[in-house]
Amino acid sequence: MVSRQEKLLLQAVKKGDYNRVKELLTRGVEANAKDSKDTTVLIHAAQKGDRELVDLLLQAGAEVDRYNQPHRVTALMVAAAANHVEVVRSLIAAGANVNATNDDGTPALAIAAYRGHLEIVQLLLEANAEVNLLDRDGDNPLNVAVRAGHAPIVQELIRAGAAINFHDIEGETPLTLAVEQGNLELVHILRQAGAEINLATTTGDTALAIAAANGEREIVNYLLQAGAEVNSQEQHGDTPLHLATIEGYQEIVAALLAAGAEVDRRNHLGDTPLMVASWQGDRAIAQLILDYGADPNAKNEDKDTPLTLAVMQGNPEIVNILLAAGANPDTRLSDGKTVLMQAGDRGALDIMEELIEAGADVNLQDNVGATALIWCCHRGYVEAVELLLKTNRVALELRNQGGYTALMLAEFNNYPQVVEILKKAGAKG
């Protein structure tokens, strides 16, 4: 319960009425008077930045480290947050605990670092604030300053002995945080201070991997020049080249390749960067990777190749450059279909044309004995059937495991136009 006299003192402090505050204190009003939230008059005065009132209350016996509820905020914390330099000086001189923390475990130093208040950071450090004190989220003041992008404060904390190569509770390092912010200046400052360039997060992401995934071209170049490991792999086995390819950052892909990235390094699914580019339909990146010697016939854990992935995605441009690079036009999918069968099953004429021109065998059979022609007839794709017949290489009599020829399936599925075309080509019922 707040007394009437304490209410008067609170009102006077909030108004900044020095004489009234002095009068009430002289009459014996408690210098530690507080409102219903346990916020003392000293905290209110500090928040206003009124050094005269702060000094007056301290001289009258106000406890410098009293905190409010439920957040446990002290006068020093609010003054630091509001950049009230002279008030901070007075509180420190009065013996304020510079390492006191609020309910989040955050000290005044971290608060000032986050807000970008350099002079207050310097005052707190001079008063022996613990530079590596961790809050409940596992952050120290350096991490906080890096996240906020305050380069001068980062430098000040480093000079005071802030730990450079440590992991916070989320597994991040100051360097990886700087990269995530896209802040090249901070990356440089941290590197100059001794940040380990290849120190990964707990998920295996190095600074280079993060920069590549985020499209930070300048940071990628800086890290490569500084000797970053170009073939590092994160928790899923992805390299910086995988990550840049996934996001479609062509310039970064080029920089990584020029720096020696392994074009056929596989992630934990067995995917190479070329497979990623083929699946996503990124012709420019796929061509770039091929130019550096990527294997167009590499297989992942699912037995897919760049070509099977491009065909499944229905991308004739990718199919074209893969075939030109030596991809096997008779490559099979995991179900035994050749890529020509897959294209035929989908009626992808442009891809079928590419494959046939590259020499695909039109008479191969899959796990159920079906040929490309049988698949096209099963679907009723007139133009695809005509395309296959134009090769003059199609064996019309081949049957699937059910004993059906292409003609039988066309008749069974009631595709009269396909039936007519097949009979003209010599198919027998």
Topology at a glance:
Elements: H1 4-15, H2 18-26, H3 41-48, H4 51-59, H5 75-81, H6 85-93, H7 108-115, H8 118-126, H9 141-148, H10 151-159, H11 174-180, H12 184-192, H13 207-214, H14 217-225, H15 240-247, H16 250-258, H17 273-280, H18 283-291, H19 306-312, H20 316-324, H21 339-345, H22 349-357, H23 372-379, H24 382-389, H25 406-412, H26 416-424
Helix pairs in contact: 1-2, 1-3, 2-4, 3-4, 3-5, 4-6, 5-6, 5-7, 6-8, 7-8, 7-9, 8-10, 9-10, 10-12, 11-12, 11-13, 13-14, 13-15, 14-16, 15-16, 15-17, 16-18, 17-18, 17-19, 18-20, 19-20, 20-22, 21-22, 21-23, 22-24, 23-24, 23-25, 24-26, 25-26
Give a description of the structure.
Helix content is 51%, strand content 0%. The N and C termini lie far apart (101 Å). By secondary structure, the chain is mostly helical. The chain is elongated, with a radius of gyration of 36 Å. The chain is built from 26 helices and no strands. Helix 5 runs antiparallel to helix 6 and helix 8 runs parallel beside helix 10 (151-159). The mean pLDDT is 97. It has helices at 4-15, 18-26, 41-48, 51-59, 75-81, 85-93, 108-115, 118-126, 141-148, 151-159, 174-180, 184-192, 207-214, 217-225, 240-247, 250-258, 273-280, 283-291, 306-312, 316-324, 339-345, 349-357, 372-379, 382-389, 406-412, 416-424.
